[in-house]
Amino acid sequence: MILGTVILGALVLASTAGTTTPGSNGQIAYAKKVRGHYQLFTIRADGTRETRITQLKGSDATEPDWSPDGRKIVFQLELPGGAGCHVELVDADGSGLVDLTGDRNGCEGQPAFTADGRRIVFGRYDDKLEVSPSGAWT
Q1: What per-residue string of b and e applies to 51-73 under the rule 16 or more CB within 10 Å gives b?
Q2: 111 φ, ψ (degrees, to nearest 5)
Q3: Contact 91, 71 (CB under 8 A)
Q4: Distance in angstroms (rounded) separating the CA atoms of residues 122 and 33
Q5: Average pLDDT, stretch 66-77?
Q6: d(CA 59, CA 51)
Q7: Scanning 14, 21, 68, 137, which has its CA 20 to 30 A from the CA of 116?
Q8: What is the per-residue pLDDT for 44?
Q9: Which alpha helices (H) appear in the chain, and where do they start and end?
């Protein structure tokens, strides 16, 4: 019973921490607060070799997801001052940062690779699109 509780507790903690792993027993990608802003890190499953992946000043890198081949990480970039969020793609070593969403209103986030790695899906919120009290889009 204690082992089951420990495993369940570990799964709950992992899901709230926003961690992902590429494949079985792969590295873990996660967001960790550094000087007031979240940055992405990777670490081996045994807790060794923590590596900082992003160095973004004034922005928060959250919601990482590994590509199925373990070569890329897609994540949500929250812009300073509530200016929105973007979907970004970076190589597993932190190089090659690419903005996938461009300059748009609102927030595009919580990205994830499809199982075959050919596409990235994400949520979108447009702060300029409003619904009137009658339920009609304005």
Answers
A1: eebbebeebbbbbbbbbeeeebb
A2: -75, 155
A3: yes
A4: 23
A5: 96
A6: 19
A7: 14
A8: 94
A9: 2-17
Cβ 56 vs Cβ 40: under 8 Å = no
Contact of 19 with 30, CB cutoff 8 Å: yes
63: left (phi over 0), alpha (psi -120 to 50) or beta: left
Using alpha carbons, list the distances in angstroms from residue 31 to 26, 28, 84, 91, 137: 17, 10, 18, 16, 36
What residues are paired with 73 via a beta bridge? 66, 90
Query: In this structure, are residues 113 and 66 in contact, taking their beta carbons and an 8 Å threshold?
Result: yes
CA distances from 101 to 26, 58, 97, 98 (A): 28, 19, 13, 9
Q: Decide: pTM greater than 0.85.
A: no
Name all domains of the chain by residue range, CATH numbers in brackets: 2-125 (2.120.10.30)
pLDDT class of 125 with cuts at 50, 70, 90:
confident
